[in-house]
Amino acid sequence: MSKDFQNFIDGQWCDSASGERFDNINPADSDDKVGTFPVSDPTDVSRAVASAASAFDHWRKVPPPERGDIMKRAGDIMTARKEELSILETREMGKVLDETRGDVQEGIDTAYFAFGQSSRLSGKTIPSEMPNKFNMTTHMPIGVVGVITPWNFPLAIPTWKIFPALTSGNTVVFKPASDTPATATLFVEILLEAGVPETAINLVHGPGSSVGRAIVEHPDIRAISFTGSSAVGKNINSTAGAQLKRVSLELGGKNAQIVMDDADLELALEGVLWGAFGTTGQRCTATSRLILHENIHDEFLAELKIQAQALRLGNGLDPDSQVGPVINATARDTIHGYVEVGIGEGALLETGGEAASGGALDKGFFYKPTLFSGVTPGMRIHDEEIFGPVLSVIKSTSLGESIDILNATEYGLSSAIYTRDINAAFTAMRDIQAGITYINGPTIGAECHMPFGGVKNTGNGHREGGDGAYEFFTETKTIYVDFSGTLQRAQIDNR
User: Fold this and answer.
1) Residues labelled as active-site residues
2) What's the whole-model pTM score?
3) Domain 255-439 has CATH 3.40.309.10
């Protein structure tokens, strides 16, 4: 059932200044309108920033463990409402219900991790070079932070950013993706119910071209955390950098799985099917390249083709569905455009390569799991992020060549190798250029207490998850306490 949603600004649910609205439609079922949402603009962003700024002085002085208690309560509420959140997510972005349950659970885990971290926001005590002098560091909140999130993990990724930001004492202006605004709204409602001050969290719906840009450009926002495309991330970094804002960018990927000839082939097959076609390939960590040793290439490819063709497409709320739709018509057209490019480049289309249709599929944006063989580095389908259910297979002759192929892109997020050879595994861990490497596991499956991020054009060096998120959302403050009662000049009086 459709409803009219609102922004949350300065402690109030409200419409945008323009009064305009946009529709949010289930990508699996065009008859299912999730709701309508405000089309906001810089005026709304300015109000949200003013609200967050007004809340900062109070919120930063709340003891961190007390802030952590609020995050725990949010986790408890999310646990109680897990199925409701999961169903809403599936309606908004399409992935099957088992996956959205995992998405929600990741948010719950992140809440409880924040609860634990709130008592561990520790600094260091460091010996002074002077007598009767004490040195230490502590971590201070930054201020108002802007959080801009994508649609493919509409709960997990906002929690990765917002829980650490709030736990660290910052206040937040949150712009979710316009394809998944209802999940974001429910998350904000949960934060408020848990006890986050009403002016400390502000939600502004609308397009990135106006709302996102206004957040990035606003002088009173001191940090930006963004997940999305590399092209947009570079623009954000350039714009925010002119104001010396702190910026965390989690961007694209072109992830590969290597399968060596000594691998457990059944396990490797399960891994690539999940890695390539889970979330319909719409993950920054999705397996979009498969590098097969020549000794097992033909056997593995033949079985992979059979298994890919057997995957069941459908509405994510249907328990028989294994693969849901892509997010919208534009995405489906882009994916098909890459398929045509791949054929034009001389790759062999093994299966898929077209929109899926018939019956209920006609109401959604479905695309068949697609498999190319004969792909080589330099082809666009090898080098460029497609963000859909398209897997490119490359043949290799050795471990060294496999690693070289894996590294032959501008991205470096996730990677995987299947092998029983411990020497090969450790060589891969050392030589693969990626922020994440899995041994005998698929390229997807991040855990919230571990660092998440990549190298090269995948990001700008910051990590989400684990301690890294709290490092990003705080400033290190160095403190000197001189109790000597005399003037002590460092590097002068003690040398």
Assistant:
1) 250, 284
2) 0.97
3) yes
